[in-house]
Structures are given as C-alpha cells and as structure tokens.
Amino acid sequence: MSGRADSDTDPEITGPEAAAAQDTEPEFGPAEPDDEPAEPAEDPDEELDDESGDADDPAEDARRARWTAAGTGAALTLAGLAAALLRLTRSAPAFVPAAYAGGAAVCAGAAVLGARGRTRRALWLLIAGVMVMALGDQFD
Hints:
The chain is built from 6 helices and no strands. By secondary structure, the chain is an all-alpha fold. Helix 4 (about 60-90) packs antiparallel against helix 5 (about 95-115), helix 4 packs parallel to helix 6 and helix 5 (about 95-115) runs antiparallel to helix 6 (about 120-140).
C-alpha cells in the first residue's frame, strides 16, 4: 500500500526528538486544574488615570474624530467662503467664486455630519468639497 504514514506515529516507534516534536499538548495555561488564576489589579481606576490608557479608550477616539471632522469642516468652509469673496472682487469668471462657495457648502455639510458622529461620510464630503474648490481654481 502506498501513501504517507500517519502523522501521529506511536512514540515508541519514533526517536525521542520526533516524539517531542509530535507533542500536541499546549504549553501554556494552567498545568494543574487546582491552579488559581492571577489576581486582578488592585484598583482598576488607576489604569484610567494613566495617559497611556486614554489612547486605548474607544469613546475618547470617537470624540477626537468628531472634533477633528467638525473642526476641519469649519476651517475649510471659512477658507472656501473667503476665497469666493476674494474671487468676486477680481475679474474672474462667475464659475470660480461659485465653485469655491459650492465647495464651502459641501465642507459645511461635512462639519455638521462630523459633529453628529458620521466621521467617515464627513471625510468623503471634505474630500469632495476640496476637489470642487480645486476645480474652480483651475478656471481662474
């Protein structure tokens, strides 16, 4: 009969090195069922007071993302409106200030979405708003 032998060959047949390599018992975990688990930390609030613990807090990450999206949206809205007003005072095609104002409106919508927690949609709206402003700048 051809083919490979079973992978769990009896340890008496194989050498001691091969028997050790075939050992499938995990080497971690409690060795005895009577072993006690490790004691928890004395004060769980101590970990929250540490600065490194704040980086792992999902609520803090979400709050930071909301503030970032809302702040970036507001800043880009103001920049777009300022650029639209500057382009209105110069001799530029009407499409240019309209593109800046439209991009600013899209960024304002992104700021609102970001403040409500829709940060992914806000990011895409910010990208779209800046692209509209950049398109208007190409015609200047």
